[in-house]
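Structure, all two chains, one model.
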Amino acid sequence: ELKVEQNPLFLSMQEGKNYTIYCNYSTTSDRLYWYRQDPGKSLESLFVLLSNGAVKQEGRLMASLDTKARLSTLHITAAVHDLSATYFCAVDNYGQNFVFGPGTRLSVLP
Amino acid sequence: DTEVTQTPKHLVMGMTNKKSLKCEQHMGHRAMYWYKQKAKKPPELMFVYSYEKLSINESVPSRFSPECPNSSLLNLHLHALQPEDSALYLCASSQEPYQETQYFGPGTRLLVL
């Protein structure tokens, strides 16, 4: 059974600081996704990582994938308040199933 | 146009009602998805349509019945739901199944009384 974990589940950080969210998964997969969700809103796709060593960056967010370690990271650089949201990773097990992590609730404080 | 639309935005129904949720995209995407999300929980994949064919049914109860009339439309027919089915139902689409960015609709917030 595919299991996806995220760490931390809650993150409160100050503006201007850097931090990393971790996503671990239990089975072999080379397809991992990051999403953002604002309270009461739908999901926004951030990154699609489709191979080992994939790295993608958009603004203050950078995501990477290590399929051997079954680990993805979402790095936040110089956080700003607008980044406050819940961040989900999700793993596709070659079309067999598609599982989201529990989410990391990020709060960026001034 | 990167928009996925969903109707209705809100729906209240009784346990004996039959209703349908509708999702539409005009991006030429060949994969469409239904997700269920309970409050403060991650989304759960319910159904995937790939090239208008159902490719994954994540053991969803039969009171939920998906339909893909054409490549732009996705329906979710609801019948004899239970109060625990109350949730946000999200539709998404992508160019190809899983390999691409998924674009999400705003969701339908469903309350079953």
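Residues 32 and 104 of chain A are 16 Å apart (CA to CA).
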